[in-house]
Amino acid sequence: MNSIRDTYKTILKATEEQLYKDKNSKFYGYAFSILTEDDAKIYIETLKKKHHAARHWCYAYQLGTETTIYRANDDGEPSNSAGMPIYGQIQSFEVTNILIVVVRYFGGVKLGVGGLINAYKTTAQLVLEHSNIIEKTINTDYLISFDYKNMNKVMRIIKEKKLHIIHQALEMDCKITISVRKKEAESTFDIFNHLFEIDIKKI
């Protein structure tokens, strides 16, 4: 039995704005699908323009599948009262490649640290409950190089194994890039690696 974990959860697309209110303060929550830290910066800047009159733009994000990085930002709220409660929900829902931003409009009444933690946590939870969470596979990409005469041999294996082709350049010197589920990556590599006149390498 193959016990390699090769799936992860993320959101399909950006989630509709969710509003949470507490003692006249308004908390607008957003979730975005991201692949890089630069993606996160762009979405945060966009929300700062949209909500230019707000007081705080707190956020947390997580990137990666097998090894992950995360960041949590309180943006002026008391330490660990905003970013970490948001990040806690990302962990609770077990999602990655995601940014959650909660924009706060201060309503004139202080909520206290406990009230803030609850508000940011609840807003992040609302956003995730309204998100379309999907499961994706962790894939390994390979480049297969071969002469045109070996085309049928290569294509037969790709068809039999139902391998996903990302890119192909089929001339006298052929190159095909395939994406394989991590679970099946090693066996797929071995099949091509044992073929005469066919080169396969991980990319």
TrEMBL record:
Protein name stated in the entry: YigZ family protein
Family label: Belongs to the IMPACT family.
Stretches of the chain forming a coiled coil according to its record: none
Gene3D superfamilies registered for this protein in UniProt: Impact, N-terminal domain
InterPro entries to which the protein is assigned, alphabetical: Impact, Impact_N, Impact_N_sf, Ribosomal_Su5_D2-typ_SF
Domain Impact N-terminal: 23-128
Xref: PANTHER family: IMPACT FAMILY MEMBER YIGZ, IMPACT-RELATED
Top-rank taxon: Bacteria
Matches recorded under Pfam families: Impact_N
